[in-house]
From TrEMBL:
The protein's name: Phosphate regulon transcriptional regulatory protein PhoB
Gene Ontology molecular function: any one: transcription cis-regulatory region binding
Entry GO terms, CC: cytosol; protein-DNA complex
Keyword Disulfide bond: no
Biological classification of the source: Bacteria, Pseudomonadati, Gemmatimonadota, Gemmatimonadia, Gemmatimonadales
Signal peptide stretch: none
Protein backbone atom coordinates (compact mmCIF):
# COMPACT_ATOMS: atom_id res chain seq x y z
CA UNK A 1 0.00 0.00 0.00
CA UNK A 2 1.63 3.25 -1.19
CA UNK A 3 0.78 6.58 0.37
CA UNK A 4 1.71 10.18 1.05
CA UNK A 5 3.97 10.44 4.09
CA UNK A 6 4.93 13.62 5.91
CA UNK A 7 8.19 13.56 7.90
CA UNK A 8 8.24 16.25 10.61
CA UNK A 9 11.84 16.25 11.83
CA UNK A 10 14.27 19.11 12.50
CA UNK A 11 17.35 16.94 11.91
CA UNK A 12 17.45 17.50 8.16
CA UNK A 13 19.95 14.73 7.26
CA UNK A 14 17.83 12.22 9.19
CA UNK A 15 14.61 13.53 7.62
CA UNK A 16 16.10 13.34 4.13
CA UNK A 17 17.30 9.80 4.79
CA UNK A 18 13.83 8.73 5.88
CA UNK A 19 12.21 10.48 2.92
CA UNK A 20 14.70 8.89 0.50
CA UNK A 21 13.86 5.39 1.76
CA UNK A 22 10.12 6.12 1.69
CA UNK A 23 10.37 7.23 -1.95
CA UNK A 24 12.47 4.17 -2.76
CA UNK A 25 9.53 2.08 -1.48
CA UNK A 26 7.15 3.98 -3.77
CA UNK A 27 5.68 6.44 -1.28
CA UNK A 28 5.39 10.17 -1.85
CA UNK A 29 7.26 11.99 0.92
CA UNK A 30 7.54 15.56 2.13
CA UNK A 31 9.62 17.08 4.94
CA UNK A 32 8.75 19.77 7.49
CA UNK A 33 11.55 21.01 9.75
CA UNK A 34 9.49 22.49 12.59
CA UNK A 35 6.18 21.87 14.31
CA UNK A 36 4.25 24.79 12.85
CA UNK A 37 5.31 23.91 9.31
CA UNK A 38 4.41 20.29 9.96
CA UNK A 39 0.92 21.14 11.17
CA UNK A 40 0.42 23.45 8.17
CA UNK A 41 1.44 20.61 5.82
CA UNK A 42 -0.98 18.20 7.49
CA UNK A 43 -3.82 20.65 6.99
CA UNK A 44 -2.91 21.68 3.45
CA UNK A 45 -1.51 18.47 1.93
CA UNK A 46 -3.56 15.87 3.79
CA UNK A 47 -0.92 13.10 4.13
CA UNK A 48 -1.90 9.48 4.62
CA UNK A 49 0.62 9.10 7.46
CA UNK A 50 2.80 11.37 9.60
CA UNK A 51 6.21 10.55 11.07
CA UNK A 52 6.54 13.06 13.90
CA UNK A 53 9.56 13.94 16.05
CA UNK A 54 8.84 15.19 19.58
CA UNK A 55 11.64 17.72 20.08
CA UNK A 56 10.77 20.26 17.40
CA UNK A 57 11.18 24.06 17.19
CA UNK A 58 8.10 26.32 17.07
CA UNK A 59 5.72 23.61 18.34
CA UNK A 60 6.83 20.34 19.91
CA UNK A 61 5.53 17.02 18.66
CA UNK A 62 2.96 16.69 21.43
CA UNK A 63 1.44 20.06 20.51
CA UNK A 64 1.38 19.13 16.84
CA UNK A 65 -0.30 15.79 17.55
CA UNK A 66 -2.85 17.40 19.85
CA UNK A 67 -3.70 20.00 17.18
CA UNK A 68 -4.09 17.27 14.55
CA UNK A 69 -6.54 15.35 16.73
CA UNK A 70 -8.42 18.53 17.69
CA UNK A 71 -8.98 18.98 13.94
CA UNK A 72 -10.71 15.55 14.07
CA UNK A 73 -8.02 14.29 11.74
CA UNK A 74 -7.41 10.58 12.28
CA UNK A 75 -4.30 10.31 10.10
CA UNK A 76 -1.95 7.62 11.49
CA UNK A 77 0.98 9.13 13.41
CA UNK A 78 4.29 7.47 14.24
CA UNK A 79 6.15 9.30 16.99
CA UNK A 80 9.88 9.30 16.28
CA UNK A 81 12.12 10.45 19.11
CA UNK A 82 15.26 9.88 21.14
CA UNK A 83 13.15 9.76 24.27
CA UNK A 84 12.58 6.30 25.66
CA UNK A 85 10.92 6.97 28.98
CA UNK A 86 7.62 5.23 29.60
CA UNK A 87 5.99 8.51 30.67
CA UNK A 88 6.72 9.99 27.23
CA UNK A 89 5.13 6.97 25.56
CA UNK A 90 2.06 7.16 27.78
CA UNK A 91 1.59 10.84 26.94
CA UNK A 92 1.94 10.14 23.22
CA UNK A 93 -0.56 7.31 23.22
CA UNK A 94 -3.05 9.34 25.27
CA UNK A 95 -2.95 11.88 22.46
CA UNK A 96 -3.74 9.00 20.08
CA UNK A 97 -0.38 8.37 18.50
CA UNK A 98 -0.46 5.11 16.57
CA UNK A 99 3.09 3.90 17.13
CA UNK A 100 6.24 4.99 18.94
CA UNK A 101 9.75 4.44 17.54
CA UNK A 102 12.79 5.29 19.66
CA UNK A 103 16.03 6.50 18.07
CA UNK A 104 18.30 4.89 17.00
CA UNK A 105 16.04 2.74 14.87
CA UNK A 106 16.32 0.43 11.89
CA UNK A 107 15.12 1.81 8.57
CA UNK A 108 13.54 -1.51 7.61
CA UNK A 109 11.58 -1.57 10.86
CA UNK A 110 10.31 1.96 10.27
CA UNK A 111 9.30 1.15 6.68
CA UNK A 112 7.44 -1.94 7.85
CA UNK A 113 5.54 0.10 10.43
CA UNK A 114 4.65 2.67 7.78
CA UNK A 115 3.37 -0.04 5.44
CA UNK A 116 1.40 -1.76 8.20
CA UNK A 117 -0.33 1.45 9.26
CA UNK A 118 -1.15 2.43 5.69
CA UNK A 119 -2.68 -1.00 5.02
CA UNK A 120 -4.74 -0.83 8.20
CA UNK A 121 -5.92 2.70 7.40
CA UNK A 122 -6.94 1.65 3.89
CA UNK A 123 -8.84 -1.33 5.27
CA UNK A 124 -10.77 0.91 7.63
CA UNK A 125 -11.61 3.32 4.82
CA UNK A 126 -12.98 0.41 2.81
CA UNK A 127 -15.47 -0.70 5.48
CA UNK A 128 -18.95 -0.59 3.92
CA UNK A 129 -21.60 1.68 5.35
CA UNK A 130 -23.34 -0.07 8.19
CA UNK A 131 -24.90 0.59 11.54
CA UNK A 132 -24.12 -1.44 14.62
CA UNK A 133 -26.78 -1.24 17.31
CA UNK A 134 -26.71 -2.40 20.89
CA UNK A 135 -28.85 -1.07 23.71
CA UNK A 136 -29.48 2.60 23.00
CA UNK A 137 -26.16 2.95 21.18
CA UNK A 138 -25.71 3.26 17.40
CA UNK A 139 -22.31 3.03 15.70
CA UNK A 140 -22.13 4.32 12.11
CA UNK A 141 -19.00 2.69 10.70
CA UNK A 142 -19.01 4.78 7.52
CA UNK A 143 -19.14 8.12 9.31
CA UNK A 144 -17.19 6.83 12.33
CA UNK A 145 -19.80 8.30 14.67
CA UNK A 146 -21.40 6.98 17.82
CA UNK A 147 -24.68 8.06 19.41
CA UNK A 148 -26.18 7.05 22.73
CA UNK A 149 -29.87 7.65 23.27
CA UNK A 150 -29.91 9.78 20.12
CA UNK A 151 -27.13 12.08 21.38
CA UNK A 152 -23.65 12.28 19.85
CA UNK A 153 -21.00 10.50 21.86
CA UNK A 154 -17.44 11.65 21.17
CA UNK A 155 -14.85 8.91 21.41
CA UNK A 156 -11.13 9.29 20.84
CA UNK A 157 -10.00 7.63 17.58
CA UNK A 158 -8.31 4.76 19.42
CA UNK A 159 -11.30 4.16 21.69
CA UNK A 160 -13.52 3.97 18.60
CA UNK A 161 -11.18 1.46 16.93
CA UNK A 162 -11.07 -0.56 20.14
CA UNK A 163 -14.87 -0.63 20.25
CA UNK A 164 -15.03 -1.99 16.69
CA UNK A 165 -12.34 -4.56 17.42
CA UNK A 166 -14.42 -5.88 20.32
CA UNK A 167 -17.80 -5.71 18.56
CA UNK A 168 -16.56 -7.59 15.48
CA UNK A 169 -15.49 -10.55 17.60
CA UNK A 170 -19.17 -11.38 18.16
CA UNK A 171 -18.77 -12.20 21.82
CA UNK A 172 -15.37 -13.89 21.59
CA UNK A 173 -12.79 -12.91 24.19
CA UNK A 174 -9.95 -10.63 23.08
CA UNK A 175 -6.69 -10.59 25.01
CA UNK A 176 -4.89 -7.32 25.69
CA UNK A 177 -2.07 -8.48 23.41
CA UNK A 178 -4.50 -9.08 20.54
CA UNK A 179 -6.11 -5.68 21.02
CA UNK A 180 -2.75 -3.92 21.23
CA UNK A 181 -1.66 -5.56 17.98
CA UNK A 182 -4.92 -4.87 16.15
CA UNK A 183 -5.64 -1.35 17.33
CA UNK A 184 -2.22 0.10 18.15
CA UNK A 185 0.06 -2.16 16.15
CA UNK A 186 2.71 -2.87 18.75
CA UNK A 187 3.54 -5.70 21.11
CA UNK A 188 1.97 -6.50 24.46
CA UNK A 189 5.29 -5.82 26.20
CA UNK A 190 4.71 -2.10 25.64
CA UNK A 191 2.18 -0.41 27.91
CA UNK A 192 -0.47 -3.12 28.10
CA UNK A 193 -2.45 -0.85 30.42
CA UNK A 194 -3.10 1.39 27.40
CA UNK A 195 -5.96 -1.00 26.55
CA UNK A 196 -7.37 -0.69 30.06
CA UNK A 197 -7.40 3.11 29.94
CA UNK A 198 -9.30 3.11 26.64
CA UNK A 199 -11.73 0.48 27.93
CA UNK A 200 -12.36 2.83 30.84
CA UNK A 201 -13.17 5.59 28.32
CA UNK A 202 -15.65 3.33 26.51
CA UNK A 203 -17.38 2.42 29.75
CA UNK A 204 -17.48 6.00 30.96
CA UNK A 205 -19.11 7.23 27.76
CA UNK A 206 -21.26 4.26 26.68
CA UNK A 207 -22.31 2.30 29.74
CA UNK A 208 -25.28 3.32 31.89
CA UNK A 209 -23.27 2.23 34.92
CA UNK A 210 -19.52 2.20 34.19
CA UNK A 211 -18.88 0.39 37.47
CA UNK A 212 -21.12 -2.49 36.36
CA UNK A 213 -20.65 -2.59 32.57
CA UNK A 214 -23.17 -4.41 30.43
CA UNK A 215 -21.44 -4.28 27.04
CA UNK A 216 -17.66 -4.09 27.54
CA UNK A 217 -17.06 -6.92 29.97
CA UNK A 218 -13.82 -7.93 31.69
CA UNK A 219 -12.79 -11.57 31.42
CA UNK A 220 -10.57 -11.98 34.45
CA UNK A 221 -6.89 -12.69 33.72
CA UNK A 222 -7.62 -12.86 29.97
CA UNK A 223 -8.93 -9.60 28.47
CA UNK A 224 -12.29 -8.25 27.35
CA UNK A 225 -15.46 -9.38 25.62
CA UNK A 226 -18.28 -7.41 24.00
CA UNK A 227 -21.87 -8.32 24.85
CA UNK A 228 -24.98 -6.93 23.24
Amino acid sequence: MMGRVLVVEDNLPLAEGIAYNLRHEGHEARIAEDGRAGLAEVRAWGPDLVILDLTLPQMDGYQVLQAIRQDRNQVPVIILTARGEEADKVRGFRLDADQYVTKPFGVLELLERVGSLLRRSAARAGVPSAEIRFGDIVVDTAARTVTKGGHACTLSPKAYDLLLALVRRNGSVATRAELLSEVWGYGAFVLSRTVDSHVAELRRKLEDDPAAPRHVVTVWKVGYRFER
